[in-house]
Amino acid sequence: MFETRLAQAASLVEAVLHDILSEAARAGETARPPRLLGAMRHGVLAGGKRLRPFLVAETAHLFGVPQPRAVRAGAALELIHCYSLVHDDLPAMDDDDLRRGQPTVHRAYDEATAILAGDALLTLAFEVMAGDAVHPDPRVRAELLLLLARASGLGGMAGGQMLDLEAEGRFAGGAPLALAETEIRQLQAMKTGALIRFACLAGAVLGGASPEERSALEAYGATIGLAFQIADDLIDHEGDAASAGKATGKDAERGKGTLVSLYGPAWARAELDRLVAAAGRHLAPFGPKAAILGEAAHFIAFRQV
Amino acid sequence: MFETRLAQAASLVEAVLHDILSEAARAGETARPPRLLGAMRHGVLAGGKRLRPFLVAETAHLFGVPQPRAVRAGAALELIHCYSLVHDDLPAMDDDDLRRGQPTVHRAYDEATAILAGDALLTLAFEVMAGDAVHPDPRVRAELLLLLARASGLGGMAGGQMLDLEAEGRFAGGAPLALAETEIRQLQAMKTGALIRFACLAGAVLGGASPEERSALEAYGATIGLAFQIADDLIDHEGDAASAGKATGKDAERGKGTLVSLYGPAWARAELDRLVAAAGRHLAPFGPKAAILGEAAHFIAFRQV
């Protein structure tokens, strides 16, 4: 059953994250300042679906990659995701007090500590990905590192957050921009899409996939990334804070353009159906062993939180 | 002459930094949002001595490493240094308005953009280090990435900044801590020492140095890192804002403990003499070809800005 398999992957990655964020200083480290480590742990170990590591594990599984390697690579990716949440929640950014029903890192600690914790998590992600537990061949690790950096930085996630802040009209006069569909799609392909696409590509890289297999998994990743964002916008549009475990309705309040606000919830639900079907077509070359990834597309599109 | 050689290395790394921060989106990037790129360029291309890349280049030169590789690795390291300045200057951290006589990134742009610019520079550093222009052997790149991440993160630079903020009494009641000498040395070995040590080690890794050679260069790096910090504290203690190009006297104002405040400027100058001599001894195994690194130690210890 899908939820069971997702939970199993989460508990494996959780164990690796606990190990990575343990107290003892490691080779090449002078010390691990407790306040900073505490804030990092707060930002990482508060639960979550661990969807991105799950996607790494399941795409890697298509190629028979040993599970510990995929879990390690997934943990590195999850650290990037968690750092981005810590920084996006900051007062200068989205100014959120709650995350998964808990105080955000800058509320539990303070702003400076939250900035540093995000920085140190981002750095740690690359340290983990560079380690030989991810793959014995350094060529594979170097490629994963390159792809992860490109997905996360200026031309990917960080750039997407910049576009998002601009769209909300935080700068240059203060009025929210009325984004066209293509601009919304580009913003979302960067802000949330890039890491999800990377997750699916990572399994292919770990598994030494053929160029065709890589393209198919990257297309699958792009498709479910888009579904993920539309589902997220739909939850924000219709949800309430109690069930989502975070503040909702913020998009409208900020005058933020999403495909849901542009075309309405009925369109969004039809689009999600279409995307789930498209994801399934990208998986066709892998046959029945990719069934779980088809279920993942459905889960991502129709989740309630 | 030393200053000429330093300036030559700076202009080589400057060219690489310009290239890396050019406008066109690269493979794997969706787009380069102009506002974010502008803030990154502001944080990187405002000049500076480029001391860390110089140390990479000169230690690599001992082993006959082709110059473009060392410059590339040095540029990656410089991106880390620049990101740390952008974040350290933020209102929640050191709250500085000026850096090298120019407005800091959050003053020229805004806080959210400065946070994102730092994040994207940190990410870009790892992207550059993972690229094959640094070294054709991915094993070498993966090792550099590991060492760079450890020098920069929780157990290195970011951790050192955390200890520094704690020492200033920003948290837990607000009173500055009276640090003992060993605590000051640990803080400084992390906050500024770790990247300088890495710079010297990077040349050895690029050059396939023997374990003895690596140890000697790491010890040299640790020694000049300490000298760098004592010189910095001395400049802050005695300098004025006009000649230093930044606000000075801030350490005392913040009640911050340094070895200079603990033992006085006369002791500090004698200690710098001692450290320059010690650095020379670590270089002895390399003979006359390491003369420039001996001059670097002297420059670092007795610079005025």
TrEMBL record, chains A, B:
Record key words, sorted: Isoprene biosynthesis, Magnesium, Metal-binding, Transferase
Gene Ontology molecular function: metal ion binding; prenyltransferase activity
One GO CC term on file: cytoplasm
GO biological process, one term: terpenoid biosynthetic process
Cofactor annotation: Mg(2+)
NCBIfam families linked to this entry: FPPsyn
Similarity field: Belongs to the FPP/GGPP synthase family.
Protein name: Probable farnesyl diphosphate synthase
